[in-house]
Amino acid sequence: MKHTHIIGLGGYLPEQILHNKDLPAALETSDAWIRERTGIEQRHIAAEGQFTSDLATAAAKQALEDAGLTIDDIDAIIVATTTPDMVFPSTASIVQFKLGATSIPAWDIQAVCSGFVYGLAQVDGMMRGGMFERVLLIGAERMSHILDWSDRSTCVLFGDGAGAVVLEYRDDGTEHGVIGSTLHADGAYRDLLMANHAQRNQVIPGFGGQNAPDLRLDSAGVAAVEMRGNEVFRTAVKQLGAVVDEVLELHGLTHNDLDHLIPHQANLRIIQATAKKLKMSLDHVAVTVNKHANTSAASVPLAMHALYQQNAFKAGDLLLLEAFGAGFVWGANLVRWSKQ
Ligand code: ACO
């Protein structure tokens, strides 16, 4: 039977690393506070002039190389991002151009931190419906550009980066590949976490990069993530606990069947809570939040890529991907690893 397989992976992190200890003194924060509350030690920050599409293109090139393919072999490009280069055209269109493709469809998904999980569910559904055989799915963010660098309660939490996978719909004689997905949203929580430029009476022509005013680490910021952290934390733990149960039950599986948890990387304590619920030791959980911070839609593919680079997966392993983000939107995918 045909299944959606991950056949190539790539990840890109900007060169510049910002350690907790190098955060501006005016923030009145500390390495100890950030580590203790979040597990974050550092984050990568895109260079001036380096846009979300650049990060996405770099990760995509790696994924294609890893799959042994070129862009000519790909049927569609999807970019999950909440920091597009500009409001329109889509970042996926820009990536398509930068990769040298023509004619194949390209579009963005906006599901904030859950963008990659939503994207994988979408591609799997479209492949099962016969639309595509090979798709490039990318999660890419330049979060540093939408932060208020004078707000210590949010700016310390995020970082920039991109992760990409090449997905192929094929029959490899096994039951490996994407097993299924579960997605949710609840707009009643829309005010708890947002980047609301309109309310601040600001015009952001390209909030992820192009044409946006330069933001410096000591600036008051022109755009800002606003968050009621405690409530986000509580809801994330609750809904992630429920969604992992739901997706396992839907496919007749239990936590005992899992080999790896690939969680969204927002906060080590949220990750630990989900791992505890699944009775999984942290040895079987991808943790990159310490090095990457929260890269929103890029966090799940980057975390999966990090484990892949360590040869952590073997054919037949069961992976559970999960994410939670602003909206709120959340979801999970079950994948039986097939790549050698
Ligand atoms: N450094 C030092 N002190 C700080 C900082 C900081 N960076 N940030 C906040 N504080 C202070 C606050 O001002 C507050 O001081 P007060 O008691 O004098 O008023 C105190 O620390 C406690 O603040 P809380 O917000 O209650 O701290 P909490 O323990 O909840 O931790 C945190 C805050 C880390 C944001 C936590 O709530 C959290 O991780 N929430 C999840 C949100 C998240 O990860 N969002 C990302 C996007 S959504 C997602 O991806 C899941």
- Shape assignment: globular
How many strand elements? 13
Radius of gyration: 19 Å
Mean pLDDT: 92
Percent in strands: 15-25%
Distance between the termini: 19 Å
Q: What is the CATH third-level topology name?
A: Peroxisomal Thiolase, Chain A, domain 1
Task: Please count the helical segments.
Answer: 9
- CATH architectural name: 3-Layer(aba) Sandwich
Helix-strand string:
EEHEHEHEHEHEEEEHEHHHEE
Q: Strand arrangement, largest sheet? A: 1-7-6-4-5
Low-confidence stretches: 198-206, 208-222
Q: Can you give the helix content as a percent range?
A: 25-40%
CATH superfamily: Thiolase/Chalcone synthase
CATH class: Alpha Beta
Report on the biggest sheet: 5 strands, mixed
Overall tally of structural domains: 1
Bound molecules: acetyl coenzyme *A
Structure notes:
The chain is globular and about 60 Å long. The protein has 340 residues and is of the alpha/beta class. It is 29% helix and 24% strand. It has a five-stranded mixed β-sheet, sandwiched between helices. Helix 2 (52-67) crosses helix 3 (91-98) and helix 6 packs parallel to helix 7 (268-277). The chain has one domain (1-340): 3-Layer(aba) Sandwich (Peroxisomal Thiolase, Chain A, domain 1), CATH 3.40.47.10. Acetyl coenzyme *A (ACO) binds next to helix 1, helix 5, helix 6 and strand 12.
